[in-house]
Amino acid sequence: MTTLKLQSTLIVLTIALLLSGTAIAAPGKSDELTVYFGTYTDKGGKGIYLGHLDIASGKLRVAGVAAELENPSFLAIHPTKPLLYAVGEMGNFQGRKGGALSALAINSKTGLLTLLNQKSSQGADPCHLAVDRQGKSLIVVNYSGGSVASLPIQSDGRLGDATSFFQHKGASVNRERQQGPHAHGVTLDAAGRFAFVPDLGLDKIMIYRIDAATGKLTANHPAWASATAGAGPRHIAFHPDGRFAYVINELNSTMTVFAYDPAAGTLQPLQTASTLPEGFHGANTAAEVVVHPSGKFVYGSNRGQDSIAVFAIDAATGKINCIGHQSTQGKSPRNFAIDPSGAYLLAANQDSNNVVVFRIDPQSGKLHATGESVSLPSPVCILMVHTP
After folding, report:
1. What is the CATH number for 102?
2. Cα angle at 197 between 76 and 169, to 5 degrees?
3. Which residues span the domain enclosing 198?
4. Most CB atoms within 10 A, among 40, 168, 226, 293?
5. Long-range CB contacts (< 8 A, 24+ apart) of 280-287?
6. What's the pTM?
7. pLDDT tens digits for 44-99?
8. Pick from 245, 249, 367, 235: nearest CA to 310
9. Paired residues of 254 in beta bridges
10. DSSP reduced 3-state for 203
11. Per the structure, how many domains does the chain have?
C-alpha cells in the first residue's frame, strides 16, 4: 500500500463514526502502526489478531483477537474507508462448495473488527484478495477452485453478490502441483486499471482489465504473460516507478523480473534469478515478494531454507542482484511485510508460530534482527496501517 493511500485511510479513520466495540488494549499512539495478522485456525488460532508496531523503536506487541473467523489467511484494507476484508480459506461455506469472504468494519478507537457480512468466494480455498483503487469492488482468487471473482463493495462496506467470474483452465508440467489451475495471488498496478493473477498451476500470470465505474473484470488482450514451465508463479509486486514487476515462483524458488507497459497492461520477461543461496540443495518453496518503498530493493521468502532473500534493483534496467539471505528465525515464512517508511520488515513464520521484526539498512537493503518477536498461532498474513 502506498504512503498516500495510508494517509487517506488515516484521515477517514479519524473522522469516521466510531463503531461499537470493547477495548482489549490501550489505543495506539501516533508513532505506532496498527498491525493485523491473518492466521489459520485449525491449530488453535482464533482468527484475525490485532497488534501494534512502534515505528521509533521497532517494538511489536500483540493486543489480542480483533475478530473471530475461520481461516482468515489473507487480508486487504479499503483505500478510503475504515474497512477490512478477509478470505476464509476453506473448501465449503454455508453448505456449498467454495470459501468465504468477510467484510469487517474497523473500530477507529480500539482497532477491533466488527463483521458486516459474508459472501461466497465462488471457489474452493480462496487464498488472496485485493480491493480496487476506487474501493468499489473486491477481487478474490481461489486456489483449489482455480478461479477469479469480483464482488461489489456497497456504500456501507458490505459485499454484494459476485459480478465477475473467470474459471481458469489447463495444466503444466509438474504432475503433483500443476494438474490444474491454481490462482494464487492478485495485485493491481499503480493506476488500478489492471489486475494480475499469478496462476501456479498454469505457469501464467493472468491479466484482467478493471472497469473504473463498476469494478467488473474483463480479460485483457493478451490475456496472460507466461512463466517458465514448472516455475509455479505465486505472487507479484510492482516497482514504485511502475516500469517493472517482480514475480515470485513457488515451485522452482526463483524470482522473475518483467518490464511493464501500463498502457497495454502487458508484461515482458527480463530476467530470472534464484531465491536460494548457492550450494543449498534441500527442499524449498518460495512464497512472498515485496518491493521496498524506495524502489532500491526487492525481497523474497524461502520456506525450507527459511530465509528472506535480499536483492538490489538496478534503477535503469529493473534487473536484480542477490546480495544476501537473512534467516527468519522460524519455520516457513509464508508472508512478510515492510512498513510504509521502509524501516522494518516483519516476517510471519507459519510453522513455528512466530512473527519476527527486522530493521532494514536504508543504504544496503540488508536485514538486521532487532530481537523483537511475538508468538501467534499459524501466522499467514501481515497488514500494517496507520493508527489514528
Report:
1. 2.130.10.10
2. 130
3. 3-386
4. 168
5. 280/305, 284/253, 285/250, 285/251, 285/253, 286/234, 286/248, 286/249, 286/250, 286/253, 286/254, 286/255, 287/234, 287/235, 287/248, 287/250, 287/332, 287/333, 287/334, 287/335
6. 0.92
7. 889 999 999 999 999 999 999 999 999 999 999 999 999 999 999 999 999 889 99
8. 367
9. 249, 274
10. coil
11. 1
